[in-house]
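Table S2 (text version). Query chain:
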Amino acid sequence: MSGRTLIRGGLVITASDELHADVLIEDGRVAALAASGTPTADAWTADRTLDATGKYVIPGGVDAHTHMELPFGGTFASDTFETGTRAAAWGGTTTIVDFAVQSVGHTLREGLDAWHAKAEGNCAIDYGFHMIVSDVNQDTLKEMDLLVQEGVTSFKQFMAYPGVFYSDDGQILRAMQRSAENGGLIMMHAENGIAIDVLVEQALARGETDPRYHGEVRKALLEAEATHRAIKLAQVAGAPLYVVHVSAMEAVAELARARDEGLPVFGETCPQYLFLSTDNLAEPDFEGSKYVCSTPLRPREHQAKLWQGLRTNDLQVVSTDHCPFCFVGQKELGRGDFSKIPNGLPGVENRMDLLHQAVVDGHISRRRWIEIACATPARMFGMYPKKGTIAPGADADIVIYDPHAEQVMSVETHHMNVDYSAYEGKRTTGRVETVLSRGVPVITEREYTGHAGHGVYTPRSTCQYLN
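Corresponding structure-token output:
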């Protein structure tokens, strides 16, 4: 969309700066910034002017961990690329990186092509893909090189889910060795799935079938052990490592130790681990099933260590692991057997607001909010400065954010295609007002003005922390 847009009078916040500035947008990109009220800014003219007085002007969020339409446990995540990216936009996120899945016995290319087919023409915002590697063999390893060259530069492996996504240590090592050569980044689901399966079997044999036992069998120590093992395997391979959805303080300690040794090891956590706990898993009448995800929610005392990790940069990114399943008909598949509850929570619409609440509560600074939600995920996955900041030449993915508006999170008002909110009744301060994606208004003063197909596929360079 050609033409000029001018955002006047807001407080521009990036990971590095806060400045009362006007932002000039031309042909979908940021053309210039100038301090508000200066002759330079006052001289600008535009086809459309947006007044951001009293508001924040922030980069669109980059959610580097979503699962739209993911097949899992005999069902599918309830958000499509159309509904999920629309909800993301409502929450101030303008780029997602979703996970294409290689099924055992199939090639990476088949998996990637299938995910392109799901997403193409359906997304309200821009998107990229990571690749889930479920079947490591010589052909897969060669394919990894080709995918890196075409902009799929990160590969997820699972130490959990034997028989589905699981890779053993030898397969993990081979993939890590390959990524050390081709510049890719291995993303690890770090839980000892073999040991967890034993504990699941024993719990069910004792008649422990309620959702809360999901949290009890997936022990924090087994997350820490797998995190430690992944770090050591990466060290042997000479490869970088990104550990997804870190939930346990013991796992944070493993990451901190590795980083203190100077290893290229990175960690992500998610809003559910920062704001929810095993208290939710224990809710009566099977309500706890709404909070079943893996890694699981932990006792509340883990939250302080996660916040600390975000402040000390032992954790660098907050993504959602958005993987929604409806309570009715999907979560209910696990009535009488917690191991059959589809694993995943909705959250793509809530992340930016929850992290702003963390600013209000004093856990993090405003710039750290933008760093962990926008700039670092963009750098980590090779999209910066096109995404993740407001600077000349960057895509005009910009959110006008009202830091004073109050809202109550609820299934009644959210836009995710799921029949409950994980944060039902939570009061937060701060709300998205207007969202631009490449200069085009997707949310305009709390109205959806976007459309499916505006979002385009975004190839990525390699991790920008390793160059």
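Notes on Table S2: Residues 220-237 form the longest helix (18 residues). The radius of gyration is 21 Å.
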